[in-house]
TrEMBL record:
This is DUF72 domain-containing protein. InterPro entries: DUF72 (IPR002763), UPF0759_sf (IPR036520). It holds the Pfam family DUF72.
Length: 280
């Protein structure tokens, strides 16, 4: 039997950015309608809010209601786990996060991205301890979420929803992660190493360590006009190769440097979707 081709989704990191109003968003569009507009323009969006603060089930329910049936969110894991706890003693914070309403997205719940701080060096024992905690299906996520702190009582969502896998990606930013041991650990635990571009100081992974690929294409300060057509075509070709091999692919455009270049990410994501469609 032929292997199923993977699905490629492309979009942007976040959807609230004032310079997009009048450039990407039509003039006069209300802020409360921006998510719906962006979700119709793209096939995925990366949620930044989950990185900065704990959300509530009703927030996830609203995001579900405002987006098309075939849409999928990706979520950034909390900085409390990655930047404050620094991946140590994370079982309870992870339970709280999973209980906060993440599962309320149902089939629109895509991968969770764990973005590490640039000053965190690779330590195999610490990374493996964290990766071993991550649940890989929604039933396991609900079971862990049930161990949340008492303060979450009354605002926790523990229904696992439809039977489905729960995917995780990790984005290390310290050069020491460019170590075969890091790749081996991610492959062992089925966690995708984010394939990144635009920031030369970060480790540049191209290895596929899970059943999906997670591309984060960061506009650098030198890309004042965004990605050009040739760069879009090259990344689209790589994504198509992954999909042909049976992997789902998520492509998110972001800006890691001066946010003045972030104004170009919607146009780049649109160009990517066009390039993918043209490639057939």
């Amino acid at each position: 039997m032929a292997k199923r081709a993977g699905r490629i989704r492309a979009g942007i990191a976040g959807w609230v950015f004032p310079p997009w109003r009048g450039s990407f968003y039509p003039k006069g569009l209300k802020q409360k309608d921006e998510l719906g507009f962006a979700a119709r323009a793209f096939t995925t969006l990366e949620v930044n809010g989950t990185f900065y603060s704990m959300q509530r089930p009703e927030t996830f329910a609203a995001w579900d209601a405002e987006t098309p049936e075939d849409f999928v969110f990706t979520l950034k894991g909390p900085r409390y786990i990655t930047h404050m706890k620094r991946l140590k003693d994370c079982e309870l914070p992870l339970a709280n996060f999973l209980a906060s309403g993440v599962l309320r997205l149902g089939k629109k719940l895509g991968p969770i991205l764990w973005q590490l701080p640039p000053n965190m060096a690779f330590e195999a024992e610490r990374l493996e301890g964290f990766l071993a905690l991550l649940p890989h299906d929604r039933a396991a996520a609900a079971k862990l979420a049930a161990q949340h702190e008492p303060r979450m009582q009354g605002r926790a969502w523990l229904d696992p929803g439809p039977k489905a896998p729960l995917r995780h990606a990790i984005e290390p930013r310290h050069p020491s992660f460019a170590d075969p041991a890091c790749v081996a650990l991610c492959r062992k635990h089925g966690v995708a190493l984010a394939i990144t571009d635009g920031i030369p100081d970060w480790p540049q992974f191209r290895e596929l360590t899970a059943d999906f690929a997670y591309l984060r294409l960061h506009l650098s300060d030198t890309q004042v006009a965004g990605y050009d057509a040739a760069a879009i075509a090259a990344w689209a070709k790589q994504a198509k190769a992954c999909a042909k091999a049976g992997q789902d692919v998520f492509i998110l455009f972001d800006a890691a440097g001066d946010e003045t270049v972030k104004v170009h990410t919607p146009a780049n994501a649109s160009a990517m979707l066009q390039a993918l469609a043209a490639a057939g």
